[in-house]
Protein: Proton-dependent oligopeptide transporter
Amino acid sequence: MGTTREIKSPAATTSFSLDGNSDSIQRKKLGLYFIESDDRRTAFGRGYTGGTTPVNIRGKPIADLSKTGGWTAACFIFGNEMAERMAYFGLSVNMVVFMFYVMHRPFSSSSNAVNNFLGISQASSVLGGFLADAYLGRYWTIAIFTTIYLLGLTGITLCATLDVLTPNQDNCDQLALLLGSCEPAKPWQMLCLYTVLYITGFGAAGIRPCVSSFGADQFDEKSKDYKSHLDRFFNFFYLSVTIGAIIAFTAVVYIQMKLGWGWAFGSLAAAMGMSNLVFFVGTPRYRHRLPGGSPLTRVAQVLVAAFRKRKASFSSSDFIGLYEVPGKQSAIKGSGKIAHTDDFRCLDKAALQLKEDSAEPSPWRLCTVTQVEEVKILLKLIPVPACTIMLSVVLTEYLTLSVQQAYTMNTHIGRLKLPVTCMPVFPGLSIFLILSLYYSTFVPLSRRITGHPHGASQLQRVGIGLAVSILSVAWAAIFERYRRNYAIKHGYETIFLTPMPNLSAYWLLIQYCLIGIAEVFCIVGLLEFLYEEAPDAMKSIGSAYAALAGGLGCFVASILNSIVKSVTGNPEKGKPSWLSQNINTGRFDYLYWLLTALSIINFCIFLYFARTYKYRAEQVEIKNNNTSLS
Structure:
């Protein structure tokens, strides 16, 4: 196969005979020898790139990195994310109320519809990550999908503004809404609303996996302060998310109350338009990473090649070695080489070079070690974001259930009455406070305990977040039981839309603040973990894992709600379900206890995977230590 030569793996400590037949050979590290070929460049049909070398918007190397990237470029990206999150949270809370009060949909179906919208917009983020990593690059993916996002928000504004797109509001007071006697929206009116809503979700799906990765791309990974900058970037990135959420829960709600729904949704569209302008203004400052070709194709090639050679043996006399290209660069555009690991050894057969392989092998039959390791990394990453799905379920339930709770309680602060839809602002405020104190308080204290330079590792932060979320939902269950008993005792069992003047809604702040703390630790730690651990040419796919987990959480919440309604309710016998529209006859506290139990089980599963996971940097360090000892 052209000119081949053997190179000793960094992990090698003993000699290894390639034609040995003993069973012990099969158990030896397969990374002991790599076989490099001078023909691999031709076999793949493309040349090499300088690993993760940043380029300008034209794909050319940047002559002077000091004039691009850094915190200046990151600030433009923060602005785009702030507006996107403002629109996202503005829709997530206000759309439920809009469907109930304006489109005259039942509250339960409205919340489920919005949950599905949130779920689809997050779960489909894998598409945005794929397009960014494969073809468009992160910049152009953001540019295209923010425009789509803006079109969707404009459509929602028109749906709320034009009378022809909403049902008749005459004779539709609070009692009529409660009895369900208001004129419902026509099917074509709901179709129009759902169409623009899902266009907006499609736009969000393209932005979400790219923005955090594109922002992290602005920092020089060769700098001695790279780790510190990256750690701070993801904290400030989530701070921009929080500011967007706070604006959505306060200013947008205020605009809706004073000026109406059209102005409220229009303000979201205007903010998105301004953020697009700011993002494009920063174009000359951005550093870019070249797309590395279809990651899904590379994954498929590894799976097919491994399947084809499933019966081949590493101890066979036909075994030459594990295949890799020569030099420091990999055959994958935009990616450096990845050292061999012993995980998922069945996939190593995709890189198994046999004597029967042709001089110009098809990548569907023979893959490089780096390509195989990409697939291994993607598989190893899955359990961590999967364990955050439960946190997303809790957050999704809070967005709807806690708003229903607040409607039954007193939301006054002195003489000021806070709108119920403003209640979710408090998790945002707690996040803002925690992020503000993170480096001055948490990091120094935790550093003394853990010895970690950043206070806690990425997985430790995710674990802290999951643990705090358990406390939050447990408190929610305790307080909901108290609230329900209070309502029944004081005669509010049937008049659930009438606030109880002597029961303050600010008891909900405890669960809100706890879930805010959980978000800070879990989501920020997860984003940083996925960016650092993902393969060079799959950073957006890695970030999409977090969004996918969030989307699946929304779907799980909807499915869980449907199951609870069908199992716990019996309309024929007059037995209300736990999620009865009359919150005072329902049992929200039972649902919260169920979420608590599921969260505890989920946390135990996370601890298992976190303890067994090895960071890529640790694996490289182990290999280097083995090399120095050999």
